[in-house]
Structure formats: structure tokens, C-alpha cells
Design a protein that fits this description.
The complex is a heterotrimer, with 1 copy of chain A and 2 copies of chain B. By secondary structure, chain A is mostly helical. Chain A is 53% helix and 8% strand. Chain A has a 3-stranded antiparallel sheet with strand order 2-4-3, with helices on one face. Chain A starts with 6 loop residues before the first helix and ends with a strand. Classes of the chains: A mainly alpha, B alpha+beta. Chains in contact: A-B, A-C, B-C.
Chain lengths: 268, 230, 230
């Protein structure tokens, strides 16, 4: 990882840092509000090392950060708690990295901690880079555009009607049942008019090639209750006489009260 | 193509142009793309003058428009002239797509189901015959509704005075009710044995005051409202 | 095409019976016109599902889209895929023609931009994880702004203690940045192969930045893979 330097190297560089760093730290402090937290400060400090982030010296960085915090304190600048927490942790990390590992001590080694910090910095930098790439993309409303006159979609309510077979049969039976119990109702419903009968017979005589009982021409629904039967029989009979007169049918009755039969008159 | 635009370039460019010589007008194909993009994105129709002012120097929007109009002929979107400006619009025959249908299913009205039942059992049947069976007049609305649903259609005319039209049920009707043919409808006897006919009034009740009469009243009220619906 | 439909008359298809033709899908050329019209009419991307629901029964919007995409290749307006939806957008190379002044682009803070990028590349991601990456607590205002712009939304809760909510990017986000899917984010592959999208839990002695750092530990790589896996 190259996250820290050998001890002797460090001793040497620490001297260098303290000189160059003071200036940098002061520059940082001027706009400490402009930083997005301690990691941001660390990233900025890391840049002064002028190396690839993967090769950054975490020990050096810790030194730089601590110098930055010291400087801020001396300038009586109040740093947010996050910055101080990071300073304390980096001081701890520094001691871990510098002192030979204590076998008694629990927890991750200084190298592990340094490696993770390096990873965090690298990751944050990567996120910043891709954020910049993202923002530099062609963007809707800036580089490419949507339809300027969108048409709204009109909502239309459509009603479909439905019925079941049961509905159908119940409706029909309701109607037919009502007819069955119509006999007592003295209304025009019980009168089958001559016109109706004529209309009906005219429609049917075409099929009457053989002698047929005229009572079979009584329409359905008129063959149940007596009043209706009477009316329908009378009008059908009258209508058949009318058709005989027109020369379109023949009528016969074998004996009194025998069925009256009707037949289409053959064309001459 | 670029020769054309060179020619026409003079007239359009004259008003604006000091940089004329510096930039060559883009090929007409490019100009067409530009007009397309501008018209697409603009919130309002755009005039030729404005197109020219937004396009690179020496462009001829009018010519590009001719090409673009041709390109969109017969497409789902057309280039149309609005006053002296141009815009893209959905093809008129596709306006139905700009509607979102929500379908609501309702039960058929009693008048409609009764009329339908009568037609199914008695087809072919005239309106007069339906009325005869229902005992009330059948409103146009009811028949129209059934016709529109394509559950009934016109059958042959009756050979009776006036040659009245008849109604029959359709294949859609049979499909909907799961019937092979209308003859498969159960007869009265079967209906009765299935218990569907036992809504008869008790024998002792006065029929005139019984439910049959109520029915008739209710129906005629229904019939009326149907008439006023359409 | 339009001449043909004139001939075949009222219904959409030529062919067999009247009832049947109602349910016959229109020719693919007609379907393409329909998709074109619908997408032109909408400023928002429209999903294939919605297209199908608005087109006549039996239509195949996905197929029509393939044809339409081809037709608009290299035009001034292009057909683009946005997540599982489609939209018509002007070609980016013509942006110089467009009137940008009418478009208000809200200034995003640096924190907001960073947070957005972190959500896009790590989604679904909890607030604690964002804080771990940025090393600073995420202000409510930042998240609210991104939510309000509808560039991010809440994802599923994490199956970790406290079941924290997660954030994911939206279709609007993809639309705005011209991305077909989150997999097309720039540099995503490189980041992943560099291990920078791994969820590496901090060693226990690391300082906690921001609030709920505790549950950062449990985050497995499983969370990420959901959206980016092909």
C-alpha cells in the first residue's frame, strides 16, 4: 500500500513539512468553512504531496493535518467537532505507525487503519471525479431537449355493460311469469286485434302448404289464459276469413266444433 | 445539395450578414436536422424568419422545411403551418391515442336485459312484438345500446304490412353468454324446474294489486327516462 | 399506408370478419406511427407497458420502437431509452441552436452534486453510508433538494439493524443525464474494478463521522449488485 514511510524517512520529512505546511495550513484555515469536513481537508492536504493518491504517505498526511489543527487553534479558530475527532484519531494512528506493534494491544494494526484511510481518500476523490464527469454530460434542458409542446393525455371514461346468462333467463322468466298471471287483468293486453292477427297470418301463410289448425297460429303468450285465448282465437278466425276473401287461403272444418283448418291457396 | 443552398443563401442571408464569407452554410441535410430539432423543442410555432436567425449563417430554413415536411408526410407526427409559423403536430387520425381510456363495467339496465332476453328467445322479432311481450314500449335508447354492444343486429324484414325490421342476436352475444346457439337457451319448463320461475304471486293475492302491476309501473318510468337519455 | 387504410375502410385491419378485425393488431407500420405520435406528444419518457396500453389491442410497442429508433438515427430528434421507458430528445450536437435562457437550471451545491454522484454509483445506499464516504454528515437540505428535483427517491429499506432507508436515483435522473440505465454511468466499470465501489467496512477504531455509522458495517456488496448487475 505504501501507506506509511519508514521511520528514518519520516524523521527527515517531518522537518520539511513543518516549514512548508505552515503556509498551506494557514491558507486552509482562511476558508475552513469552505471544506466539506475532515476528509476534504485531508484530500486537499494530500495534494501537496504531489503523488498518486494510492501512493500517498498517510503518516505525512497525519502530520500535515495535525499541523493544520494546531494552527487553527493558535489562531483561535473554532473547528467543528468532526475536525477534532479526526485530529485525535490521526494522532493515535501516528503513534501506532511509529511505535513497534504491541502484542498486548487489541484491534487493527496501524497499517490496516492507514490503508483504510487511504481507501477512503481515494474513494472520495473518485466520487468527485465521476460527479464532475456526470455534470459535464449532455444534459436535458441544456444540451438536449424534450418536446416543447407536449400534448396532454385526455382521460376518457368508457362504460361497458355486462350481464350474465342468469340475468338473461331471470328477466325472461319474469316476463313470462307475468304473462301467465295476466288473465284477471282486464286491459287491452288481453285483446288480440284483428290487425295483429292479419299481420301475423300474412307472415305465416307462406308456410301453410298443408292443412293446419288455425289455433296453431295463435301467438305464444296468448295460448295460456282463457281471455287471451278467446280474443286471439276470435281475431285469428276473423283474419283467416279475411284472407279467404282475398283469395289467399282456404278454410275447412270437418264437423261442428272440429278444428278449423287453413291452407295456402295454390297459385293458379 | 450544397450548391442549392449556395444559390438561395443570398436572399436569406442579406439582412443579417457581415460574417457571410467566414462561414459556409451547413449542408441542407444538416439544416433539415436543425429545423427538426428547433421545431420539436420550441414551445410555440416558429416562423421561417426566426428559424433563419437561429440557424448558422447562410442557412435556408424555408428550403429545409420543404424537405422536412416531405419527410414527415404520412408519419405519426406531421409538420404543419400555423399562420406564418411552423410546428409539429400529432397526425389527426391518431388523436385517439391522446386519450387514456378507463373502462368501467356496469350491469345492463333491466329494460335492456329484458329486451335482450325477448330477442334471444323469439328471434327474429320485430319491435312491436317485443313491446307486446314486455307490455311497455321499447325505447330507442335500449335497442341502440344493444346494437352498439353488438349483442343484437338487424335480421330480415318481416313479410307483414310495413315490412318491419326484425332483431336477432349476434355471435358476440352467444360468445358472451357461452352459448352455441340461441336454441340452447333453456325453455320455460326448464327455467321453472331450475327454480327460476317461482317468482309467481301467491294464488290468493289479487293479481291486479300484485307484483306484476308494480313491475309495469316501474318499467314505464324506466322507459321514460330512457327516452330522455338520448 | 394511408391510402390502404382508406380502402379497407372503417376498421384497422383488412382481412376477415368485422368482429375479428376489431381485435387484429394494426400493421407494424401503423404501430410505428402510433408510437411516434405518443412519444412526440409526451415530454416525459413513456414505458413500453404504457405504450401498449394506449395502442390498439394486439400491438407490439417494443417491436415498433426498434423500427422507430432506426428511423430517427442521425436525425435532429432521436429516440432514446431511459430506464425501461422511451423518449424523443433533440440530438445533443444541436444544443447550440437551442434557447437555453428559457431553461432554468438550478444551481446545485457541491455537497448536493457529490451526494448525488455517491447515490448514483452506490445505490441503494443509506444516509450513513453516504456520510462514511464523504466523511461529513449529510444535511437534510441536500437530500431534500435532490428528492424535490426527483433525481433521487427512497429505495427499499436495508435489512440491517434499524432497517435504514436507502436512496436510489430515478428515471428523471437518467433522463436528465441522458443515461439509458444506471449501468451506463461514466467510469462505473473502472471504479468497480479498482474496488472503489466495494463496501469496505472501516476498522473498528476509525472515528465515526456523521450519525448512524454503526450499521455501515453490515453492508454487503449485495446491495450494489442489485442495480448494476446485468
Amino acid at each position: 500500500m505504501g501507506a506509511y514511510m519508514a521511520e528514518d524517512e519520516f524523521e527527515e520529512s517531518a522537518e520539511v513539512i513543518s516549514v512548508a505546511e505552515r503556509l498551506d495550513a494557514e491558507a486552509l484555515i482562511v476558508d475552513v468553512d469552505g471544506f466539506e469536513g475532515p476528509l476534504d481537508v485531508l484530500l486537499t492536504l494530500g495534494r501537496t504531496q504531489k503523488v498518486d493518491l494510492t501512493k500517498i504517505s498517510i503518516l505525512e498526511l497525519a502530520q500535515q493535518y495535525l499541523a493544520f489543527v494546531e494552527r487553527a487553534k493558535s489562531l483561535r479558530i473554532e473547528l467543528a467537532a468532526d475536525y477534532l475527532v479526526m485530529a485525535a484519531w490521526l494522532a493515535f494512528l501516528k503513534s501506532r505507525l511509529l511505535l513497534p506493534p504491541d502484542p498486548e494491544e487489541e484491534g487493527p494494526s496501524g497499517e490496516e487503519l492507514a490503508a483504510h484511510l487511504a481507501f477512503q481518500l481515494e474513494r472520495l476523490q473518485a466520487m468527485r471525479d465521476v460527479a464532475a464527469r456526470l455534470m459535464a454530460r449532455d444534459r436535458l434542458g441544456r444540451d438536449f431537449f424534450a418536446r416543447g409542446i407536449p400534448e396532454s393525455v385526455e382521460r376518457v371514461k368508457k362504460v361497458t355493460y355486462t350481464a350474465t346468462l342468469l340475468d338473461l333467463m331471470q328477466a325472461y322468466s319474469r316476463l313470462r311469469t307475468r304473462d301467465e298471471f295476466r288473465p284477471y287483468v282486464m286491459d287491452r293486453d288481453a285483446v288480440f286485434t284483428l290487425e295483429h292477427a292479419l299481420e301475423r297470418l300474412r307472415g305465416l301463410i307462406g308456410f301453410a302448404g298443408k292443412w293446419t289448425d288455425i289455433s296453431s297460429y295463435i301467438p305464444e303468450g296468448w295460448d295460456k289464459d282463457p281471455a287471451r285465448i278467446r280474443s286471439a282465437t276470435a281475431s285469428t278466425f276473423a283474419a283467416s276469413l279475411e284472407l279467404v276473401k282475398e283469395g289467399r287461403v282456404e278454410l275447412r272444418q270437418s264437423e261442428t266444433f272440429a278444428p278449423i283448418e287453413l291452407r295456402r291457396k295454390e297459385e293458379p | 445539395m450544397s450548391e442549392d443552398s449556395q444559390q438561395t443563401g443570398e436572399e436569406t442571408g442579406e439582412g443579417t450578414g457581415q460574417e457571410e464569407s467566414l462561414f459556409e452554410a451547413p449542408p441542407i441535410g444538416e439544416q433539415e436536422r436543425m429545423v427538426e430539432a428547433i421545431l420539436f423543442a420550441s414551445a410555440e410555432p416558429v416562423s421561417v424568419k426566426e428559424l433563419n436567425s437561429r440557424m448558422p449563417h447562410g442557412s435556408d430554413a424555408a428550403e429545409a422545411l420543404v424537405h422536412l415536411k416531405k419527410r414527415y408526410e404520412g408519419r405519426g407526427v406531421n409538420l404543419v403551418k400555423v399562420g406564418d409559423a411552423w410546428a409539429m403536430r400529432t397526425a389527426p387520425d391518431l388523436s385517439f391515442l391522446m386519450q387514456k381510456e378507463t373502462v368501467e363495467t356496469r350491469k345492463l339496465s333491466r329494460a335492456a336485459i329484458e329486451t335482450l332476453a325477448i330477442i334471444a328467445y323469439h328471434q327474429p322479432i320485430t319491435r312491436a312484438e317485443i313491446e307486446e311481450i314486455r307490455g311497455v314500449s321499447v325505447s330507442r335508447g335500449t335497442v341502440d345500446q344493444l346494437l352498439e354492444m353488438e349483442w343484437i343486429r338487424f335480421g330480415r324484414r318481416k313479410m307483414t304490412p310495413g315490412r318491419p325490421v326484425t332483431f336477432v342476436v349476434t355471435q358476440d352475444f352467444l360468445d358472451h353468454f357461452g352459448l352455441e346457439s340461441a336454441r340452447d337457451l333453456p325453455g320455460l319448463k326448464e327455467l321453472r324446474s331450475a327454480g327460476l320461475l317461482d317468482n309467481r304471486p301467491p294464488p290468493s293475492a289479487m293479481p291486479a294489486l300484485g307484483e306484476g302491476d308494480e313491475d309495469a309501473e316501474e318499467e314505464s318510468a324506466e322507459g321514460q327516462s330512457e327516452l330522455f337519455e338520448d
